[in-house]
Design a protein that fits this description.
By secondary structure, the protein is mainly beta. It has a single domain (18-121), classed as predicted glycosyltransferase like domains (Thrombin, subunit H, Beta Barrel). Helix content is 14%, strand content 36%. A six-stranded antiparallel β-barrel has the order 1-2-3-6-5-4. It starts with 17 loop residues before the first helix and ends in an 18-residue tail after the last helix.
């Protein structure tokens, strides 16, 4: 597996490069979680490499098209709808469909352990806006 051609903000293990993390609306947290995504009635195993209230980086063996609607399933969480934002090889950036406060609530105690709070839903003061 070639891990050098995926998203530049992460290393091959999904760890966030702090130099690029400041462009994101939500802080990313590196994790190694087993989960699955469901698409068109098919359930695909995945590894979650990083997560934020706005989305996650998933390693999925099959390529998925950007724009596809999926359901993320993680242990001890309710299913979360997401959209494939980008795909590069086995790495897929997923954006959660629900607003960050609802995702934080779905994560429950995990959100606290990861440092996700209602405050993480606020854009960073120096983050680019869609208008920039």
């Amino acid at each position: 597996m070639n891990t050098t051609d995926h998203m530049t903000e992460t290393d091959p293990h999904g760890l966030v490069d702090p130099a690029h993390d400041d462009r994101r609306r939500h802080p990313r947290r590196a994790v190694v979680w087993r989960g699955s995504v469901s698409i068109a009635g098919r359930r695909l195993a995945c590894w979650v490499r990083n997560v934020a209230p706005g989305g996650m980086l998933a390693e999925i063996e099959l390529p998925l098209a950007a724009g596809a609607l999926v359901t993320v399933e993680l242990p001890k969480l309710r299913p979360l709808p997401a959209v494939i934002a980008w795909s590069s090889g086995v790495f897929h950036g997923l954006s959660f469909v629900e607003p960050a406060p609802q995702v934080i609530q779905a994560f429950g105690a995990r959100a606290t352990a990861l440092g996700f709070t209602e405050a993480t839903d606020s854009p960073r003061p120096d983050a680019p806006t869609p208008e920039s």
